Amino acid sequence: MRKAAVKRLTDQAALGGIATTDEDREVRKAAVEPLTDQAMLTEIAKSDKYIDLRWAAVERLTDQAVFGKIAKSDAARARPRPSGSPA
After folding, report:
1. How many domains does the chain have?
2. What pLDDT digit, counting tens, does each position of 34-60 carry?
3. Would you say residue 85 lies in a domain?
């Protein structure tokens, strides 16, 4: 029900808040899909803990420079950690 309600929202500030703070991952993803705020999408793409939400945000981005930054940060995130280092 909440997911369906989010899909009807057009207020970018409300969508951004839901996309970054809601407890339900599916509701958050539903909020990313209509989001057009490039700054908010960039933040989600760079730092969300869920890869599917990061990917959904990347698909909505239009700034080529941001793509490069995200590619570099995700590559650093994917590097193996030395044994005994914190996760």
Report:
1. 1
2. 999 999 999 999 889 999 999 999 999
3. no
